[in-house]
Amino acid sequence: MADPPKKESAKILKPELRARLHAWWEGYEYDAPAATGPQPGPAQETAHPDPIKPPMTGKVVVKDQWSRERIKVAQLVWGDGFTFPGAVDFVLKLAAPLALARDAIGLDLGCGLGGGTRALAQASGAWMEGYDLSLELAQAGAALSRSAGMESKAPIGFLDVAEGSFKPKRYDGALVRNVFSLISDKPKLLTRLAHGMKPGAKLVVFDWAIAREDAHGAALDAYRLGETTAPRLSTQAQFAAQIEAAGLAIAANEDFTAAFRAELLVGWAQIDRLVSRGQLEALEGEALMGEAKSWARRLAAMDSGDLRVVRIVASKKA
User: Fold this and answer.
1) Residues sharing a CB contact under 8 Å with residue 234, sequence separation 6 or more, in sequence order
2) 180 to each of 165, 170, 226, how far by Cα in Å?
3) pLDDT digit string (tens) for 42-64?
4) Counting Cβ atoms within 10 Å, is residue 139 exposed (0-12), middle (13-18) or buried (19+)?
5) What is the pTM of this model?
């Protein structure tokens, strides 16, 4: 079983500890200020080359509802800042092909609460912009970025997939997680994504797929019927063809089911622990049971072989 995921902290650090961490990141020695008078602080952070404020309005297409209680228990299971299996280490591995440089501008679409968005910004030094299809998650994620002092480095907003668009040639790399399986018009969003990427920029797509076009096993059917927002699933090959049709060159097309399943089982152990401790309030307990049932159906569909998790890496043609 994989090691438990590292948790992101959304707390504001004490001033001296913040200064020490900043010094470590910037690569200089930190000297504590003398008690007798003020001392120069660390160098100012580089200004964002083209700052934006992600929107919080638009048409909501996902039916999933994220109450305060559900957001709380999801983080207890999957890690601070996460509502889905695969916390900091997993996201960094997933997004590694993007090879984001310091001060690059990256997109994290389907970011949830933005735990991965902030982790990518911290690890690479890139300016990350996170968007989610859930208004509740986007609002909660934006608050977490503010609390972490990363409102500029990793802002979180809401994506209107019906009308939303991206600034032309803005992004040096884009990570898209669990978005395409929720929408029917995949080519339209892929075209918008390609429009927003710089020539040569990498795209990493991580999502659900079906093993065969005619897959209709009992576990897969139970998964489909159990989802609040009905999944619109393609095969891995169909998905890759749609990406290529948008003007992107496929570099890798991988089945990530085993790695994702390992991350899911780490969280599953947390569900068992939380239930055993019995310290949740009534609404939190109901939310936890709802999460457990959803992931039990998804796990069964994966284990049947009909439901797969894929990672596709592509680049925008020059």
Assistant:
1) 180, 186, 209, 210, 242
2) 15, 21, 18
3) 334 577 878 778 888 778 888 88
4) middle
5) 0.83
- The 3-class SS string of 202-250 reads EEEEEEEEECCCCCCCHHHHHHHHHCCCCCCCCEHHHHHHHHHHCCEEE
The per-residue pLDDT for range 148-182, each reduced to its tens digit, is 999 999 999 999 887 888 999 999 999 999 999 99
CB atoms within 10 A of CB 59: 10
Distance CA 254, CA 237 (A): 11
- Domains identified in the chain and CATH numbers: 68-259+300-316 (3.40.50.150)
pLDDT, tens digit (0-9, with 9 covering 90-100), for 249-272: 999 999 999 999 999 999 888 877
- Residue 32, Cβ density class (10 Å: 0-12 exposed, 13-18 middle, ≥19 buried): exposed
Count of beta carbons in the 10 Å neighbourhood of residue 151: 15
| pLDDT tens for each residue of 291-315 | 999 999 999 999 999 999 999 999 9
**CB of 204 within 8 A of CB of 311?**
yes
Best CA proximity match to 242, nearest among 160, 142, 312, 173: 312
Burial of 24 (0-12, 13-18, 19+ CB in 10 A): exposed
Residue 17 has pLDDT above 80, yes or no: no
CA distance 52 to 107: 12
pLDDT in tens, 233-253: 999 999 999 999 999 999 999
pLDDT at 88 over 50: yes
